[in-house]
């Protein structure tokens, strides 16, 4: 029983963090569409940095969630709603699954891990 709890704790500790890193990398791919040979380097760098703003926000939230899982999980879920409205992913189900749902899932996993730890009295089962 304790080995199972340890495995679940370990999985729920690392899974949202790994998913967040992978999702940040996935979103970064879309920023590369600004590179065109006929544009000036100043324009390209500026456009590239603007396209990376969601990645910067996600990285900041990941840093917060790494330190405080409950706050980070809530912020990830809030950001999922912001992504859904701002990027209008509610208009196409596939867009929602690719952009908004992963952020919601990451937040839910952070909150689930926090909930399970608090349910056991705030301690990890390591013995």
Q: Describe it for me?
A:
This protein has 127 residues and is an all-alpha fold. The protein is built from five helices and no strands. Helix 1 runs antiparallel to helix 3 (53-67). The model has no long low-confidence stretch (mean pLDDT 91).
Q: Any key phrases for this structure?
A:
mainly alpha, 127 residues, elongated, single chain
Write the layout of secondary structure elements.
Blueprint lengths: L1 H30 L9 H11 L1 H15 L1 H18 L6 H27 L8
Helix pairs in contact: 1-3, 1-5, 3-4, 4-5
Number of strands: 0
* Main sheet summary: none
Order of helices and strands: HHHHH
Q: What general outline do the C-alpha atoms trace?
A: elongated
Question: What structural category characterises the helix and strand content?
Answer: mainly alpha
Q: Specify Rg, calculated over alpha carbons.
A: 18 Å
Overall mean confidence score, pLDDT:
91
Helix content: over 70%
Terminal Cα separation, in Å? 11 Å
Provide the low-confidence segments as ranges.
none
Contiguous helical run count:
5
DSSP strand content: under 5%
